[in-house]
Amino acid sequence: xxxxxxxxxxxxxxxxxxxxxxxxxxxxxxxxxxxxxxxxxxxxxxxxxxxxxxxxxxxxxxxxxxxxxxxxxxxxxxxxxxxxxxxxxxxxxxxxxxxxxxxxxxxxxxxxxxxxxxxxxxxxxxxxxxxxxxxxxxxxxxxxxxxxxxxxxxxxxxxxxxxxxxxxxx
Length: 170
Known about the structure:
The chain is mostly helical. Helices cover 65% and strands 6% of the residues. It has helices at 3-9, 23-29, 38-41, 55-60, 63-83, 85-94, 103-124, 126-130, 132-143, 154-169; strands at 15-18, 45-47, 50-53. A hairpin with a 2-residue loop joins strand 2 and strand 3. The longest helix is centred in the C-terminal third of the chain and has 22 residues, at 103-124. It is globular and about 40 Å long.
């Protein structure tokens, strides 16, 4: 059994599904470029205890990248269990705005990306989370279009990133 299977076995209620096999994911992905868009080809999506993975991405990455993404998505599983799926999605999508400032979307994703950074550090070491490339990529997820410009305050994201790195390293 590999580490990915072990992680999933430790979370027996979690189901790993392929985005391209889901009618719901295909429907959600249509306004975001269909099957060729990033939503369907790069990003995982979690709803309740179901994690929808882009199979093309999953097939080309190594096990550590899979584990890092699964650990991030398991944070969302826990968040949805805490808030309930409907309340989580209402907060995630609409509070305060669907596009622009998404306070709860940023809050939930900060928790997910903190786990991403923690996992990267465990698997690849300090340089993987202190590199300029990693820093800029993660900050871009918040201030760019990937999540609808959920938190356009770049300076505060740099502070969050620095604090998160310090917590991981100490």
